[in-house]
Design a protein that fits this description.
mainly beta, Immunoglobulin-like, 5-stranded antiparallel β-sheet, 4-stranded antiparallel β-sheet, single chain
């Protein structure tokens, strides 16, 4: 943030700093003393009238109005740039899109307008992917369980797992007659919102009956020996993003044998 200031030559500047919490009742806090910022801010002044400021490793929480303040040796010699500099940080996001043949494309997305031709860096489990890619990364298989993130302009996205659809079983059912509840969790960024869930058992789409109830993202039924198997889920029209399977006991004991 480029910044300059001026003051009467009869004054001597004793302190300069940047701050963001304007309405706090206590003394305004120098960002270089704030634990959230101290290791990320630099004052780049190279002369008495220069108050240029840099903040690194931007976070969405850094969105704020930044103001400069300086104090002189004269009574009442406290001056602040009231308008300040408004900074809005929009975080990057990795979007998962399915392709044919069990492959997916990861796209580094931002609602910010990226100037020029931005350079993107992709990370796999925190380590730089040793290939040159632009804003998208193609993976040959959706079986990949590694975590991927992207970065540009000093901003890094949250990591995502290609397996962005998964099933959670509420309880370990080992007896017939017990209720089973399976929940389909969707974290794919381009599949969020209300979706139609398709359930599978042993790789085959599940045929519903009056004994099985499905509502929104969960499946519920009373277990019988015929229900044993591996359950998975997918969003209608997106079978390539089929979730990893969760096993309902291959051997369901009857209550009399517990």
């Amino acid at each position: 943030m480029s910044c300059t200031y001026s003051y009467p030559t009869s004054h001597t500047v004793q302190r300069t700093f940047w701050f963001i919490h304007w309405n706090k009742p206590q003394e305004l806090e120098d960002l270089s003393q704030d634990p959230e910022y101290s290791h990320r801010v630099e004052y780049l002044r190279n002369q008495n009238s220069d108050c240029t400021f840099r903040i690194k490793q931007l976070k969405e929480s850094d969105s704020a109005i930044y103001r400069f303040r300086f104090l002189t040796d004269r009574y009442g010699g406290k001056y602040t740039g009231h308008s300040g500099v408004s900074l809005t940080v929009t975080g990057l996001q990795v979007k998962v899109t399915e392709n044919e043949a069990q492959s997916v494309t990861l796209t580094c997305s931002s609602t910010c307008t990226l100037r020029g031709t931005p350079t993107f860096t992709w990370y796999k489990n925190g380590k730089v992917v040793p290939y040159e890619y632009k804003y998208s990364l193609n993976l040959a298989s959706t079986d990949d369980t590694d975590l991927y993130s992207c970065a540009t302009g000093g901003v890094t996205s949250p990591a995502v797992n290609v397996k962005c659809v998964k099933v959670e079983m509420k309880s370990e059912t080992r007896s017939e007659g017990e209720w089973v509840t399976l929940t389909c969790e969707i974290t794919c960024t381009d599949l969020t919102g209300r979706q139609t869930i398709i359930w599978y058992r042993n790789g085959e789409s599940l045929q519903y009956s009056e004994q099985k109830y499905q509502q929104d993202d969960y499946l519920q039924f009373i277990a019988t020996s015929g229900d044993a198997g591996s359950y998975s889920c997918a969003v209608r029209g997106h079978k390539n993003l089929l979730s990893p399977a969760v096993a309902l006991c291959e051997y369901l004991k009857t209550n009399s044998n517990i």
